[in-house]
Each structure stands twice: as C-alpha cells, then as structure tokens.
Design a protein that fits this description.
2 domains; mainly alpha
Length: 181
Amino acid sequence: MPASAWPLFAGIGALLLLASLIGRALKWRAGPGPHAVIDNLNARIDAWWVMVLVIGLAFIFGKTGVIVLFYLVSFYALREFITLTPTRRSDYPALVLAFYVALPVQYLLIGFDWYGLFSIFIPVYLFLLLPILASFGGDTTRFLERASKVQWGLMIAVYCLSSVPALMTLDIPASRGATCC
C-alpha cells in the first residue's frame, strides 16, 4: 500500500471507530432486547468494517490485489444480474462467452495495462459478438430483449466495475493524488 493511502485508511478507521462507539452506546442506552433501528445501524457499521478491511487487504497486495477484488465483485454482480434476467437455452453460448471469456479478458487487459483495448473490448467487440452467438440457437422468441439484457449486464457488471481498478492503477505522471499501486 502506498504511503499516501495510509492517512485515508486511518481517517476511515477513525470514523468507523467513532460510529461503532456511538452505535454500541445507543444499544447500551436502549436497554436489553431487540431494537430494530439500532440493530440495523450496528449491522451496517459492521458491514462497513468488513468492506474497509477487504479493500485494505486488496491494497496491501497492490495492483494485483485490487484487480482480483474487482474481478470477483464483477463476477458476482454479473451472476446476480443474469440470475434475475430471463434467458433461454439458446442464450447459452453468449453467456459462456460473457462469463468465461469476456470477464477474465477484461481484467487481464487492465493487468497488462492495455487501456486502448480495455476501453473498447466490451462496448464494441462484445456488443457485436454476443447477439451473433445467441442467434446460433435459432430461437427468435424475444431475441432482441434477451440479447440486450446480456449485453447490458456485461456493460454494468463488468465494464463499469472494471473502470475502478483501471483508474486506480493508471499511471498519471502529473497527478498529485494517491495511486493504489
């Protein structure tokens, strides 16, 4: 982790510590028994502790740690998106391409610092290729709707999320801000 990131994590840790103390004091003051609002607040504060620790751990492992963390987040986000999206058997080749090719390639492009291809891989190449693969199944029922849902699932869950590690690992010589790696 770069030295410039320590004050940021220290500040976030101090705020979380303060929030935890306030949440526990509210729980203690409210007395025994469940209190929905206070319990919800404490659960959210605990979740923030976990998120900060996971991101901090990724920062400790540098560029690779950040890329792997966001790869996993993208995988689970895409999986949830596709789970909620109605698909048919003929969409299988497009889904295989999305999960087993597009997702890893997108993050490998970031790892290899190939920002030119990273920025056009999904919105250009895959937006053209996914409907072609889905059409091989011969199922025309709601074809455009199904194809667009897979495309936009990739765009939101992979392309947009992969922009975060791409920006964090981008080497900008004139910048004064903190870089992760």
